[in-house]
Write a structure and sequence with these properties.
With 175 residues, the chain is an all-alpha fold.
Length: 175
């Protein structure tokens, strides 16, 4: 048996055994350290992420705030343009209404001074709504004289428009 032990002791494998044991002794704690390292790194990573989470959230909020401010500026600019256009429209509408009042009063005065047969001829040519508006502004005696001179169907149409204007609650076609 001792020959056998000598053989095993003198074998190249036996000469490497102390080095292997040493390497194994060095590797085992390293392996333990690597297993412990991920949990330590995970904790460190969590701590790092936790530390920068507030800063990252604040940065996102600042970016979102900047975007909202830009959008608000765009909306404010559009509102300002709409206000300007609205004011221009109101000014134009006021000028138009003033013109219409002057023109309407002068137009009614023109028809007041016309002979009933000439006024009837002119009103038959106009749009029925315009003709009815003019007849409504005339004195009843003059309006009846003009309607008397008009074609009966056109006079009836104007009378219908005038009646519906006087009673807006009635439906246009009661049938």
């Amino acid at each position: 048996m001792s020959a056998r032990v000598k053989f095993v002791r003198n074998s190249p494998l036996m000469r490497l055994a102390p080095a292997g044991a040493l390497a194994l002794a060095l590797l085992v704690p390293g392996a333990m350290a690597q297993q412990a390292l991920p949990t330590a790194m995970e904790d460190e990573i969590r701590e790092f992420c936790g530390n920068i989470a507030d800063a990252a959230r604040d940065q996102r909020y600042l970016i979102q705030k900047k975007e909202l401010e830009e959008l608000q500026a765009g909306v404010d600019e559009r509102i300002e343009r709409l206000d300007e256009r609205s004011q221009q429209y109101r000014d134009w509408l006021q000028k138009r209404e003033e013109f219409m009042r002057v023109a309407e009063s002068q137009l009614v005065d023109i028809y007041k001074n016309m002979r009933p047969d000439a006024a009837a001829e002119q009103l038959e040519i106009l749009q029925p709504e315009v003709a009815a508006a003019i007849v409504m502004k005339l004195a009843p005696r003059l309006a009846s004289s003009i309607l008397n001179e008009m074609d009966s169907k056109k006079a009836a149409g104007l009378t219908s428009i005038i009646a519906s204007a006087a009673a807006p609650d009635l439906p246009e076609d009661p049938t």
